[in-house]
Design brief:
Layout (H helix, E strand, L loop, with lengths): L1 H16 L3 E3 L11 E3 L1 H19 L5 E3 L8 H6 L2 H4 L1 E6 L6 E3 H27 L5 H7 L1 H22 L3 H10 L16 E4 L3 E4 L7 E4 L5 H5 L2 H7 L6 E10 L14 E11 L4 H17 L8 E5 L9 E9 L2 E12 L1 H10 L5 E3 L4 E3 L2 E8 H12 E5 L5 E5 L10 E5 L6 H12 L5 E3 L5 H11 L3 E5 L1 H6 L1 E6 L5 E5 L3 H9 L1 H6 L3
Parallel strand pairs: 3-9, 19-20, 19-21
Antiparallel strand pairs: 1-2, 4-5, 4-6, 7-8, 9-10, 10-16, 11-12, 12-13, 13-16, 14-15, 17-18, 21-22, 22-23
Helix pairs in contact: 2-13, 5-7, 5-8, 6-7, 7-8
Length: 514
């Protein structure tokens, strides 16, 4: 675990050094849990968004997009339940004066018990070798049996307390399990309290005439209040979906793990409207399809898993997360929820407007049910970055840091390099750049030795390097170097476009989803 934490620290440092992610307001000592995307980060982020957007809107005839405002009428958040129910259970340590999410403290404690079980299993696996039976060992080794029994007991109490919104029950688990503050090392805890996560501000010109509005904590409600506008103007028939990419804001008290949990973040959400009774079929469809979208990137199928929710949100009748193996464990990157007709019914009730759908096939009006797919752009970005980072030992004692980014997502698709800065090579290299730049993000680099330039491009994940040398002027060929294998081939300049396009286009990625 410590080794993984070291790798994560290196990834965070790499992200800053190579222009992917900067701490926000850094010259003023930063702003906690807020980050800016640098010149390479914004390209990678935009490519992730494009991959999602086109997978939704190009590959599905019945899905369209919108872009709703961040500010919305405050009653929307009353109707959605965010004013009353969008809370985190928080607990303070009196000695360190630090505040924590009670549920996260307990989840981390359960994870530590899991680590103890895994440690015992690994020790036994080494001892017994090929003849090792993991299931039998877990059932017969008394220490492991006790760990598993303990874990299940804590987990059951935790689930019951969360489902019942029992704040005292959460505190009792923390006390009974002797969970200590990671900073002070003491168990001097306050009571658990609820804390609303929405940022609020005033809208209006005077104090008397202003009203409290909220920065949206999710993009979904902008879709729900526009669903009838889209349905009527687009003449959409159920089932149909509305996609949206946009900023959301949550006043996270325990913001941590770099860009994994931030106060200002970006979401890619799609709400799919279906007939009541059809929702579980569509829930299963989107659950499978969304995992396929992730796996098409080639980051490693074993790094994904589903996590079905034990505690369902007040609006859901089914919910699952797609979790990705980050350096700090399996973490949620996307949620698929069956939201029933909760949101639309609430908005109909609070607005006093009829927003039902008339189904011509059934000759009846009803409130549609909704399947939601919701993915965090920043978490997706982090999963791509973490799984792509590698420190690679090379022959002859050399080494390199390389980002094995999926080629279609890479910020720069190819770098063109003259071998030397004379003899007409820079001019020829510029000609190639001017030809390729209309289709690919192309970088020109002439500084330092060719080896250093290759390393620089490897570190930002550029799939191809094109080297222009003296032979180029004779036969119109260049050296094309591939990032991952470092293989170099001689190709004609006229063939470059087709070769690169075949590997780096979003089209090739989308075709995997057919």
């Amino acid at each position: 675990m410590a080794q993984q934490e070291d790798v994560f620290k290196k990834i965070v440092a790499h992200a800053k050094e190579y222009g992917f992610v900067f701490p926000s307001s850094e010259i003023y000592d930063g702003l906690s849990a807020v980050y800016d995307y640098g010149q390479n980060g914004v390209e990678l982020k935009n490519n992730i968004k494009r991959y999602w957007w086109e997978a939704m809107t190009l590959l599905h005839e019945n899905i369209v997009g919108i872009d709703s405002a961040i500010f919305m009428h405050p009653t929307i958040w009353k109707a959605s339940g965010h004013v009353d129910a969008f809370n985190d259970p928080l607990i303070d340590n009196r000695d360190s004066k630090k505040r924590y999410r009670a549920d996260v403290l307990i989840e981390d404690h359960i994870a530590k018990i899991d680590e103890k079980i895994d440690k015992e299993v690994e020790k036994a696996r080494k001892r017994f070798g090929d003849s090792f039976d993991e299931e039998m060992f877990k059932q017969t080794n008394q220490r492991v049996v006790d760990y598993i029994k303990h874990r299940e007991a804590v987990h059951t109490r935790f689930s019951e307390a969360m489902n019942a919104n029992d704040l005292e029950g959460l505190r009792n688990i923390i006390i009974d399990e002797e969970i200590v503050d990671p900073i002070s090392g003491t168990r001097n805890w306050t009571d658990v309290r609820q804390f609303n996560l929405m940022f609020s501000t005033e809208m209006g010109s005077t104090a008397d005439g202003s009203m409290t509005v909220y920065l949206r904590p999710e993009t979904a409600q902008g879709i729900f209040v526009n669903y009838l506008n889209v349905q009527k103007t687009g003449r959409m028939r159920i089932p149909f979906g509305i996609a949206q990419i946009g900023k959301a804001f949550r006043n996270e008290i325990v913001a941590r793990q770099f860009i994994f949990r931030m106060r200002e973040f970006e979401q890619m959400e799609m709400q799919f409207f279906v007939r009541p009774g059809d929702e579980m079929r569509w829930f299963a469809y989107w659950k499978e399809w969304r995992l396929r979208w992730h796996k098409a990137l080639g980051l490693g199928d074993e790094k994904y898993r589903y996590h079905d929710h034990e505690k369902l949100a007040h609006y859901a009748n089914a919910a699952t997360d797609i979790e990705f193996q980050m350096p700090f464990g399996f973490k949620e990157v996307e949620g698929i929820h069956s939201r029933t007709d909760f949101d639309l019914s609430q908005h109909e009730k609070y607005s006093g407007k009829k927003i039902q759908y008339f189904d011509p096939e059934l000759n009846a009006s009803y409130t549609p049910y909704v399947i939601e797919t919701s993915i965090g752009v920043d978490r997706m970005f982090l999963s791509v970055l973490c799984s792509s980072y590698e420190e690679q030992a090379l022959e002859g004692g050399d080494s390199r840091v390389v980002l094995h980014l999926p080629a279609a997502l890479a910020p720069t698709k190819c770098a063109v390099m003259p071998l030397v800065r004379k003899d007409g090579l820079p001019e020829k290299a510029r000609e190639i750049v001017d030809e390729l730049k209309f289709d690919f993000t192309t970088h020109y680099d002439e500084k330092d030795s060719i080896g250093k330039r290759y390393r620089r491009q490897d570190a930002v994940g550029t799939p191809y390097c094109i080297t222009v040398d003296h032979q180029t002027l004779e036969d119109n060929t260049v050296t094309l170097r591939e990032r991952d294998s470092m293989e170099q081939i001689r190709v004609n300049i006229n063939d470059l476009h087709a070769l690169i396009h075949d590997k780096v286009s979003l089209n090739s990625l989308l075709r995997k989803l057919k």
